[in-house]
Amino acid sequence: MTPPVPAGRDRLRIAIQKNGRLAEPARALLASCGMSWRESRDRLFCYGESLPVDLLLVRDDDIPGLIADGVCDLGIVGRNVMAEQDGARRASGAAPAFREWRALGFGDCHLALAIPEGEAWESPAQLAGKRIATSYPALLSEWLAREGVQAEVVLLSGSVEIAPRLGQADAICDLVSSGATLAANQLKPVVTLFESEAVLAGPMQDLDAARGELVELLLRRLDGALRIRNSKLLLFQARRESLPELLPLLPDAEAPTVMQVDGADRLALQALCHGHLTWQRLEDLKRAGAMGLMVLPVEGMLA
Ligand SMILES: Nc1ncnc2c1ncn2[C@@H]1O[C@H](COP(=O)(O)OP(=O)(O)OP(=O)(O)O)[C@@H](O)[C@H]1O
Ligand SMILES: O=P(O)(O)OC[C@H]1O[C@H](OP(=O)(O)OP(=O)(O)O)[C@H](O)[C@@H]1O
Ligand SMILES: [Mg+2]
C-alpha cells in the first residue's frame, strides 16, 4: 500500500465509499473533474496521479469522523449519514465538526416513518409508548422530541423493515427510495423526516493555505461538472420572425447566441440548455420554425 502522507501534507485527501451505492458515482464525478489515480493492491488508498488528490476508500459511516479527526479533508457521503452523526454529536454536547460543502445530485432517498399497511395513520401522537426500529436514532429522536412524542427507539443496523413482522417494533424509520422494500414488507410510509442525496462533506472551517488553492480548483471544476451534468448544447437555424415563438420553448437555456447567416434570410442559434431535452420539446421547436436541429453533449465547462 502507498504509505499515508504525514500530517502537514500538501496533498488533498478525499474519502469515498469503498463499496456500495455511492462508490461508483463518487469516483465518476471526481474523474469528470480531471482526476486519475493509481490504485493500491488492497484498494483502500488511491494515489492521485493527475492532481495531488488522493482517495481513501472506506465505509460510508466512517467518513464524517475521518473529516472531524482531520484524517481526510473532504468526503462524499449521504446527507443522511452526515445529519445522523451531526445529531449524535449535538446530543452528546460535542461541537459541530463537519458540514455540507456541496449537494451532488445523486443518491437521492429520504428517511421515512412507516407503519403496517393495515393500520390507520392519524398523527404522530399515536406513536406514544410504541417501539420504532431504526438505524437513525439521532434523527428519529430529534423528530420525536419536536413532535412532543415519547416512544422507544429500537436500534438496528440493517434490515429494519422486517422488525414489525418479527414483533421487534410497531413502526420503523428507514431510508426509502423506490418504496419497494416497504411494500415488500407490508409497510406504508406516513411521514418524511429528512430528504437526502450525496454531498461533498468538509470541515466547518476552510482548509489551510497550502491545500486551500487545491480545494478551490477542485470546487471550481466540481461546480462546472455539476452544472453541465444534464446540459446539452442545442444548435439550429431559424428565420428571424420565428424567434418570438422559439425562445419561450427554451426557458432553461442561457441567453442563446444568435448569429446572422451570410447571404441568407436565416439566423443560426446556439443555446446551452440545462433541463431535459425531450423528443417532444425538439418536435415543438421544429414546429415553431427550428431547422437543422442538433443536440450535442457538453464535455466540460468553466464558469
Ligand atoms: N435505496 C436507496 N436508494 C438510493 N440511495 C440510497 C438508498 N439507500 C441508501 N441510499 C444512499 O446511499 C448511501 C449508501 O448506501 P449503502 O446501502 O451503499 O450504504 P451502506 O450499506 O451503509 O454501505 P457501507 O458498506 O459503506 O457502510 C446511503 O447512506 C444513502 O445516502
Ligand atoms: O425504497 P427502496 O428502493 O426499496 O430502498 C430502500 C432500501 O434501501 C436501503 O437498503 P439496502 O438495499 O442498502 O440494504 P441494507 O439496508 O441491508 O444495506 C434502505 O435501508 C432500504 O431498506
Ligand atoms: Mg454504512
UniProtKB/TrEMBL annotation:
<comment type="similarity">
    <text>Belongs to the ATP phosphoribosyltransferase family. Long subfamily.</text>
</comment>
<keyword id="KW-0067">ATP-binding</keyword>
<dbReference type="InterPro" id="IPR013820">
    <property type="entry name" value="ATP_PRibTrfase_cat"/>
</dbReference>
<comment type="function">
    <text>Catalyzes the condensation of ATP and 5-phosphoribose 1-diphosphate to form N'-(5'-phosphoribosyl)-ATP (PR-ATP). Has a crucial role in the pathway because the rate of histidine biosynthesis seems to be controlled primarily by regulation of HisG enzymatic activity.</text>
</comment>
<dbReference type="InterPro" id="IPR020621">
    <property type="entry name" value="ATP-PRT_HisG_long"/>
</dbReference>
<keyword id="KW-0963">Cytoplasm</keyword>
<keyword id="KW-0808">Transferase</keyword>
<keyword id="KW-0460">Magnesium</keyword>
<dbReference type="InterPro" id="IPR011322">
    <property type="entry name" value="N-reg_PII-like_a/b"/>
</dbReference>
<comment type="pathway">
    <text>Amino-acid biosynthesis; L-histidine biosynthesis; L-histidine from 5-phospho-alpha-D-ribose 1-diphosphate: step 1/9.</text>
</comment>
<keyword id="KW-0547">Nucleotide-binding</keyword>
<keyword id="KW-0368">Histidine biosynthesis</keyword>
<keyword id="KW-0328">Glycosyltransferase</keyword>
<keyword id="KW-0479">Metal-binding</keyword>
<dbReference type="InterPro" id="IPR018198">
    <property type="entry name" value="ATP_PRibTrfase_CS"/>
</dbReference>
<dbReference type="InterPro" id="IPR015867">
    <property type="entry name" value="N-reg_PII/ATP_PRibTrfase_C"/>
</dbReference>
<dbReference type="InterPro" id="IPR001348">
    <property type="entry name" value="ATP_PRibTrfase_HisG"/>
</dbReference>
<feature type="domain" description="Histidine biosynthesis HisG C-terminal">
    <location>
        <begin position="230"/>
        <end position="299"/>
    </location>
</feature>
<dbReference type="InterPro" id="IPR013115">
    <property type="entry name" value="HisG_C"/>
</dbReference>
<dbReference type="Pfam" id="PF08029">
    <property type="entry name" value="HisG_C"/>
</dbReference>
<keyword id="KW-0028">Amino-acid biosynthesis</keyword>
<dbReference type="GO" id="GO:0003879">
    <property type="term" value="F:ATP phosphoribosyltransferase activity"/>
</dbReference>
<dbReference type="Pfam" id="PF01634">
    <property type="entry name" value="HisG"/>
</dbReference>
<protein>
    <recommendedName>
        <fullName>ATP phosphoribosyltransferase</fullName>
        <ecNumber>2.4.2.17</ecNumber>
    </recommendedName>
</protein>
<feature type="domain" description="ATP phosphoribosyltransferase catalytic">
    <location>
        <begin position="59"/>
        <end position="223"/>
    </location>
</feature>
